[in-house]
Amino acid sequence: MATAQFSGLASGIDSASLIQALVDSRNKTNEIRRADIDFLESENEALDELNTKILALNDLLDKFRTANGGGVSKKSSSSDSSVATAAVSSAANNAAFTVTATSVASTATASYNDAYALTTTAFAANAVGTQTIGVDIGTGADLVSVDVDITSATTVQEYVDAFNANSNASGRAVASIVNVGTTATPSYRVVVASLKEGTELGTIAFDVPTSGAGFGGNSDLQTRTTDQATNAVFSVSGITGTITRSTNAVSDVFSGVTLQMSKVGTADITVSDDADTTGDLFQEIVDGYNDIVEFVAENDQISRTEEGGEIVNTFGSLAKTRLDNEFLARVRLAISEADAPSGTSVTSFSELGISTNRDGTLAFDLDAFKTKLSGDPVGATELFRNFADSAAGISGFLYEYTKFDGFIDVSQEANNTQIESLNDKIEALERNTDTMRRGLEAQFARLETITARFQATQAQLSGILAGLG
Predict the structure, then answer these.
(1) How far is residue 44's CA from residue 299's CA, in Å, rounded to a whole number?
(2) What pTM was computed for the model?
(3) Domain ranges, ordered by start, for the chain
């Protein structure tokens, strides 16, 4: 029996699988783009960490810059630390001198001689009307007046509170109530103390109305006891005359030296090189640099693996940028170029026990460093400053990497622009894929309809042909 056949229009086409296969093929492009985004974000994170490490190295080197008085660290000693000591910076010159203190700077303390049984007792019971009780703190241009208005009803506690609340008293003087009696039989006094040393800022003077004018002829507040503020007065061997300062911390006599006076007497002060501290500081610099070298090496790695017969390369976070390696090359160049023209036995870092290992890290012989430094502190200081001046601070090359719009910032912004572009492409492809999916689904739906019609026609024709047979 003859039958009608329509080639290529069989039913049972798995259109969903065909469409999904096409979608999956397009999605592979976006998977690659998302992997690129992940890598760019990891690179930015690694650059952030590199930036932090460079800033830390800059802070360590900054101490050695000429502008900061950098160089070989100094130390001081005193023959009598109870009389005077010295704090020194690397800007100090080696020296030995004698300090003789004839007076030390002090604050002033003063009190009214009036005694009170209670803090709620009237401060000046015989005050006539309103009286202004004035206390002058300091002298000349530094003088401030603390004025408090009282009446015969103002209590001791109220006066003290009003004094301390006065803005002119802030940071300059304080009033308090002191019991000079016993717990059972108290005898309170009002005490005023200046807070600044020296006569210019610490002197106390009272401005109290006279007995007749303010207190009806009575003796309220008329007698007082004052232990006046004093200046530091001292002499230094080799300097003619005495030196007077308003503070016991004197930093303007010797460059890089702050003398601290404690009491009257004599002390021999010595300032000398401190190889131990300098070595420790430079060890921190070496460690900071080596930390960067190791970080870069770890993030520059490229690993190769085989997956399904294919070789796959996995890149470390910094493996696709040259910025990190250019930075290390810049540091190595600065180390090799640093010199000390005035040095005798120290003219380069290699002469201070610093060398480069095969992995790029620095080797540091601390004992050799201290020995060489002690033999030529002038050369060492010049070498340190030469290197630090070229590397640290806003004029150093480290700043070129860490500043706004610096090398790291520009690199990260370029990555962010690329990430934004990739995200736009991903979204565009996803929209296009959705449109394609809907179009294919509609086409296959129409195809199924047409196929069903052909199959129906085929069945009819087959029936007719069978009837003719």
Answers:
(1) 12
(2) 0.74
(3) 29-68+276-409, 74-105+232-273, 109-227
